Amino acid sequence: MTAELTARRFTAPLPADMTRDWLPSSPAVAAALDTYSVLVPANEAFYMRTINASLPLIADPALRKAAETFIHQEAEHGVAHKRYWQTLDRQGYRFRGFERAVDRLTFRTVERIAPLSIRLSMVSCVEHINAYMGHEFLSQRILADAHPEVRALLEWHFAEEIEHKTVSFDILQAVAPSYAIRLLGLVLSAPLFYLVLTLGMLHFLAQNRRLWRPTTWGRLLHHLGGGHHMLWRTLKHLRAYARPSFHPSQLDDAALAEAVIARYSSSDADWLTPAKRGKPSPQVPMAA
Ligand SMILES: [Fe+2]
Ligand SMILES: [Fe+2]
């Protein structure tokens, strides 16, 4: 059972003069997260179309309400990350061709050829990935040395991924409860997610002239290995999803999300406001 969800608007002004090195501890992780920001709008739009198509099949009114707020939260994520594109533009990055190619070759293609049950299973799997990324980045404070507003953008998004992590899984269980369909979603989505993230990371690092620097790879190894153990932890979370008895609520990290939402709703950094239902979020101008 999902706790009551709230859709929020991210209002922090993203500085126009920010350097590309917004995460000094790891250029490769910064490049991977810039890729994440580039892919969020199309990715979230795919979730929204899929969950929208599932709404008439959901009998439980509480789950249907959670699904509607889920859609609203994802819409706000798309708006906020698209605003960050202006920062990437000012930093001189080229990424729109990559973004269009990924949208056409993955989301649009899947939508054309796969039935709703498979699309829903893929959404459920990527939502699990979003939630465990959020868990790891928040619990290990991986963004502690990041630029404050970019850190806030990502941590707010990760916190809401934790908040709504049961929704698409519960919809999948309600609409297509087959374990084989869940496993198929995992097999199709997880390798594709990490392939696209890696290609985008290399694309950003090449433009940043960081691709051939030994420190880039040394720090990435630290992130994946002995530092944050992300390779092992990723495999552990994916293996958990493959267990027949898995449910996202088995990892109780609601307090992590609550702490982040409280931090960015405080008087020091009042960057979140409740988003009004049915009202598209206006673009917040960039800081001078
Ligand atoms: Fe999201
Ligand atoms: Fe999500």
What report would you give on this structure?
It is a single chain. The protein has helices spanning 27-54, 61-90, 96-113, 116-139, 148-163, 167-175, 179-207, 214-224, 230-242, 254-263; strands at 8-10, 272-274. By secondary structure, it is mostly helical. The chain has 10 helices and 2 strands, in the order βααααααααααβ. Mean pLDDT is 94; it is low at 284-288. The chain is 65% helix and 2% strand. α1 packs antiparallel against α2 and α1 runs parallel beside α3 (96-113). It is globular and about 50 Å long. The longest helix has 30 residues, at 61-90. The chain has a two-stranded antiparallel sheet with strand order 1-2. The protein has one domain. Bound molecules: fe (ii) ion (FE2) (2 copies). Residues 74, 127, 130, 161, 164 line the site of one fe (ii) ion (FE2).
